[in-house]
Amino acid sequence: MEKLQGRVAVVTGAASGIGLSLAERFAAEGMKVVMADIEGAALDSAAAAVRAKAQAVLAVRIDVSRAEDVEQLARETYAAFGAAHVVCNNAGVAVIGAVHEHSLADWEWVIGVNLWGVIHGVRAFVPRMLAGGDEGHIVNTASMAGLSTAPFMSVYDVTKHGVVALSESMFKEFEATGAPIGVSVVCPGLINTSIMRSARNRPSELAEEGKAGPMAQAFGQALGDRLTRGYPPSEVAEQVVRGIREKRFYVVPAQPEVREAATIRAQDIIGLRNPTPRR
To answer: Domain containing 244: what range?
Structure first.
């Protein structure tokens, strides 16, 4: 999909971080942009900034973990613009802790946003895109945590591996059926975003957090420090646009040392070795 100007891009998690950078990058390409997020005030502010650069902007406050909210997003998109050409299922949250320390609410919240959010986005938009008959592209945000694993990140890793598997299946299905829709899975490495502060948007009914032990807390602090030195979100957006134009499935804006974790995991699987501990 090379021509982006005049077409419609939908981005969830668009009020900050990677999502906002995607919205800004699509606006720079001359696209109409639909921005969705759960954080209302931040979304309004972000949309106002993007409006200065875009042909048209629609801002919709939704919770991607709710199927009816994402269906509403699709309805409003098509009512406003008549189409969706690029759909970025990008919203994400994170928690830190050992597997046995997590509360059920931890699992429900993160799976609801990170995995069900993608599932809802696919179910709401893909049938409409296929019915329209135009070329399009689905962009699902996973993580290097979808290609490797780390201690104290089990909940996050499970969701991101799920997004990679879902995306690979979609890619193969569209190739087999000749659908005019490309698929990319984005696996960022260390990116300077506020994902480690995503609890600010955690719903009250899922507020019970697991009790992370001292090792998990130390891991979380170190990860937070590393993220502040990571790539800017704009680097992810730039690579996503290139990936769409090249119909490239894997988009991996990750540092070499972060990519190495996926290589080591693959070698462990090929060699039937026990998982190599993260250094």
So the answer is: 8-270
Token pair 């134009």 is found at 245
pLDDT over 90 at 279, yes or no: no
Q: What is the pTM of this model?
A: 0.96
The reply to whether 156 belongs to the active site is yes
Environment class of 44 (CB within 10 Å of its CB; exposed 0-12, middle 13-18, buried 19+): middle
Residue 279 lies in a domain: no
* Per-residue model confidence as pLDDT tens digits over 34-77: 999 999 999 999 999 999 999 899 999 999 999 999 999 999 99
CATH number of 58's domain: 3.40.50.720
Phi-psi region of 180 (alpha: psi -120 to 50; beta: other; left: phi over 0): alpha
Which structure tokens are listed for 181?
A: 């829709």
- The answer to whether residue 2 is domain-embedded is no
H helix or E strand, kind and range, residue 186: strand 181-186
In which residue are the tokens 């019970």 written?
A: 208
**Does residue 166 sit in helix, strand or coil?**
helix
Q: Are 186 and 141 in contact (CB under 8 A)?
A: yes
DSSP string of 98-129, one letter each residue: -GGG--HHHHHHHIIIIIHHHHHHHHHHHHHH
Residue 275 within a domain: no
Could you tell me the sign of the dihedral formed by the alpha carbons of 169, 172, 176, 181, in that order? Answer: positive
- Tell me, yes or no, whether 3 lies in a domain: no
Mean pLDDT, residues 90-105 taken together:
97
Structurally, the chain folds into a number of domains equal to 1
